[in-house]
Amino acid sequence: MSDRQPLLDASGKLPSGDDDGFGSDIHQKQVPKSSFSTWRRYFSRSTKMDANNKKPDDEDDANDRYHDIGFFEIFRHADGISVLLMLTGLLLLAIHAVCVLANLALFGKITGVFAVESFDNDCHKVHRNLTALITYDSDCPLGIAVDADNNSRLYKLCHNVDTVALATSPSSSLFRAKVMTIIYWLILIAVVVWLASFLEYAIWSIAIRRQTARMNILLFQSLLQRNVPYFDKHPASQFNSNLFGNIAMVEKGIGVDFLIMLGAVLGIWASLITCFIINWKLSLILFFTVPIVMTGSTIFSKLLARETENEFKSYSSAGRIVQEVVSSVRTVFSLNGAKFEQQRYEKELESTHWSTVRQRAICGVFMGWLSFSSYIVYAVGFIFASMFMSYATHHGREITDVLVIIMMFAQCLAYFGMIVPFFQSFSEGHGAGKSGFRPIDEERDPNLNEKDLFTEDASNEDSVCNIVGDIEFKDINLVYPSRKDVSVLHNLNLIARTNKTTALVGGSGSGKSTCMSLLLRFYEPSSGEITIDGQAITQYSIKCLRQNIGIVSQEPILFAMTIYENIRLGKLNATRKEIEEAAKEASAHDFIMKLPHVCRFCFYFVSYM
């Protein structure tokens, strides 16, 4: 929309020639078109925008301020106690992973014991009645075709002294003892897993909560150190998002969800190592599925992280619109701009819709791929296991090995499935950490921050100086950093004599408040000099100036504290008597005493106005 075009016409509608495309009916955007180009938008990440629609955070992206953070850098705000708690949680996580592997091994072992025992009881009967079996095929064990070749193998299996069939042909009591031993181990593992799970989640949550609390403190402190031009360029909604939304997502991303994801990764590697120790041949054959799944996981994580970051940017832009409208709702209503703002808000949300669709589509494809890979593991595992058992000279632990290996590889793929939703949470937290950590990192930038705001206490006597003398503005020129094409002050010369009242009179926007901002060093003049008693104000500390110069703006704001505490902000070490006198001199004492809920004993302690 050009400068000469009206915002709204007489009928309250948008001009038809709107450059931003807001003039089109919003309902037309909600009706999907049956064309290839429409469906292609589901998977298109193009976020092109013209120069007129470029947002402040997009400019920061171009300046590389929106920097990336490493995997471990997201934990950089952990102190010594938090690190100790995290290491304890990781140790408990390792114990948990070992117990899961032991459970799989014992389950495979007990299944093998039952299978071998059942086969051992039948194989002698099969050999003694071979002729009857071939003729009637009535007593053959399920799944075994009786022929001359199988008869030879059954005979070797039943009478070979090195085989499980003969070596483990125990009595019923011995068989039961072996089974019960395994069951006791399973019960012990269950108790250990319960204790380890409870402790690891509790300890890890405490450690992460300590870190995010420190992040909130550092982030708020970094914002308090910013200079005024920084706030001119960045809207307040962006700070609210960083303080509350992004840090909360970081806490969720590196909290219990991250611990579960880390446990799944640990379980994958431990399972693979165990399988290769048990039977490296069968494990090597099944290992071909792992690189395929890992490649898919890598692609999935990159796509998901990109979509998550785009979603954050869109929600942040939409949040700014909401805050603008709510804070200026009278202006919006006076211009009949409600529909215009609604369209602008929905346009920002449209990109989040497509981003969400792409995220869910990626998750669905990946989960389907994991299910397909699991079935491939079962099929390939049993095919090659049957070949190894058929041609092996010593069967020994073949049945147990096969069951354990196949179950562990299937568990690996199940772990990959567990990683998917929790990795999405971690990706969201990692993406939120980029914008959340950025203001903290900018604390070291001298161009964005006030100097020495936290180096000394404002109530310290050494920081208080007496400012007495004439205030003079010499050839002052000023251009706001956020509006470099507009000159606010041009060759201003002014002298305010001591012990005299000087009035600056002018229309709105003429620079009256700007002069006070320069005197308090909210801005630095583009050229010229401001002196107090002949000494440049740059020779005074910022705290000294602001401690001795009082200012009441057009819209004064009371902080969320008592009236007593609000008055004391002008002098933190003021006594109660001084505060009472200040209220009387400002002709506010009688007004305050007429307010409801006044506690005379604690003096002015009113919760709100």
From TrEMBL:
Region Disordered: start-end pairs: 1-37
Stretches that traverse the bilayer: 83-107, 182-204, 258-279, 285-305, 361-390, 402-423
One cellular component (GO) term of this entry: mitochondrial inner membrane
UniProt xrefs under Pfam families: ABC_membrane, ABC_tran
Keywords annotated in UniProt: Membrane, Transmembrane, Transmembrane helix
SUPFAM superfamilies for this protein: ABC transporter transmembrane region (SSF90123), P-loop containing nucleoside triphosphate hydrolases (SSF52540)
Membrane-topology annotation of the record: Multi-pass membrane protein
Ranges for domain ABC transmembrane type-1: 161-428
Subcellular location: Membrane
InterPro entries reported in the protein's UniProt record: ABC1_TM_dom (IPR011527), ABC1_TM_sf (IPR036640), ABC_transporter-like_ATP-bd (IPR003439), P-loop_NTPase (IPR027417), Type_1_exporter (IPR039421)
GO biological process terms, semicolon-separated: oligopeptide export from mitochondrion
Keyword Transmembrane: yes
Principal location: membrane
GO MF terms held by the record: ABC-type oligopeptide transporter activity; ATP binding; ATP hydrolysis activity
Protein name, as recorded: ABC transmembrane type-1 domain-containing protein
Organism: Adineta ricciae
